[in-house]
Amino acid sequence: MDVLLVSLFSLLAMIVPLALLITAIVMIVKFMKRHEQRAHARLELERQAAADQRQQFAFLVERLDRIEAKMEAMK
To answer: Using CA atoms, how far apart are residues 38 and 20, in angstroms rounded to an integer?
Structure first.
């Protein structure tokens, strides 16, 4: 009985660190995947914001051109 108990504890002593290591690796991989997804989402938002800014800039340049044309016509 003592031999069985000792071998059970030694087996448990080998399995527990291995299980903890595997669990830590899985958690790190999940964290990195979530971080990568968030980075992609932020990048897409920044791209959309840049496209909106380009569109606003083009609109303002067009308005400026019209104002300059009207001022030239008034001279």
So the answer is: 27
Taking only the tens place, the pLDDT of each residue in 19-67 is: 999 999 999 999 999 999 999 999 999 999 999 999 999 999 999 999 9
Tokens for 19? 């299980």
Residue 7 and residue 15: Cα distance in Å, rounded? 12
Cα 24 from Cα 10, distance rounded (Å): 22
Rounded Cα–Cα distance for residues 6 and 70 (Å): 96
HEC sequence for 2-60: HHHHHHHHHHHHHHHHHHHHHHHHHHHHHHHHHHHHHHHHHHHHHHHHHHHHHHHHHHH
Q: What is the pTM of this model?
A: 0.61
